[in-house]
Amino acid sequence: MVKYLIRRLLYSIPVVIAITIIIFALIEIAPGDVADYFVSGEVEMSPEAMQAIRDRYGLDQPAPVRYFNWVGAVIQGDLGYRYTDGRPVAEAIQRRLRATITLISAALVIGVVVGVPLGVFIGLRQYSAWDISLTGFSFLGISMPAFVTGILALYLFSIQLGWFPSGGMRPIGRGEVGLWTSVHHLILPSLVLSLNYVATYMRYMRFSMLEVVHSDYVRTARGKGLADGRVTWRHTVPNAILPVITIIGVSIPNLVVGAVFTETIFSWPGMGTLYLEAVRGRDVPLLMGMNLVIAVAVLGANLLTDIVYAVVDPRIRYD
């Protein structure tokens, strides 16, 4: 396992290099001039002043030079400084990353804890009333966009019923708050974000259970007189859950995308709202830094998925 992890980390190095090139290239080919952001509509900027802005931020240098300057700074842990307020990019990302990780982690846990057992449940009851009704729910959960679900949930549970706060991580004007207050603010946005993944994991787990439940080794286990619960959780589920683990791993980037809408609707101070601010303000250093952090997180999620594979299925060995 150790050799495998080292090999995967070495394989990730060229991937990270390719990611940095793609991120820089996408920012480079984006329409518009970054220097235009600094131009005020009330003050006429001379060509000399515009050139001074480009000189100050290194925008007059060739693209390869700017790329290597950025990569060199990233290697040293410096993601640059924001164009909007001059603060370090790493500080801005670190301040918002915790909120996003909290939201995404809660949504992912809800998706797994609710979706996987429901998939097992209906996978053992094919064409039953439970199967038909929960499968219909899964179609609804998959097809409903996060922003539509968020607006409906906000209107119903916050405005009409008043069960949950309408936004934010804590009440306005309060500093340190208790655990229940934080959880109370987290429940509704995490449920909205997890709805699609509960439905997705449930459907994939159902399909996988239907394939495994009729396997020869499952019939053999039942023929030996093993209890149904033991056959299900010791023989069927460990084999059926492997494809679902892959889906869980690849859904993490989609969680980040869904968090953009959820954080905007519920005023959650995370990476999603920060990303929108960076796009609106043409804050190139912040955009590049956030894209790099998200890409590295996706690589880490893929590596974690492979590790979970080995833990769940003892037949898998990495030499």
List the helices and strands and how they pair.
Elements: H1 2-29, H2 47-56, H3 63-75, H4 89-123, H5 129-143, H6 146-160, H7 179-212, H8 216-223, H9 228-265, H10 271-280, H11 284-312
Summarize the structure in short:
This protein has eleven helices and no strands.
Account of the 3D structure:
With 319 residues, the protein is an all-alpha fold. It has 2 domains: 2-75, no CATH class; 89-312, MetI-like (MetI-like fold, Orthogonal Bundle), CATH 1.10.3720. The protein is built from 11 helices and no strands.
Count of discrete structural domains? 2
The largest β sheet comes out as: none
Q: Can you count the beta strands? A: 0
Uncertain regions: pLDDT < 50 for 5+ in a row? none
Strand content: under 5%
The SSE order reads: HHHHHHHHHHH
CATH hierarchy, class of the largest domain: Mainly Alpha
Question: What's the rounded overall pLDDT mean?
Answer: 79
Tags for this entry?
mainly alpha, 319 residues, MetI-like fold, 0% strand
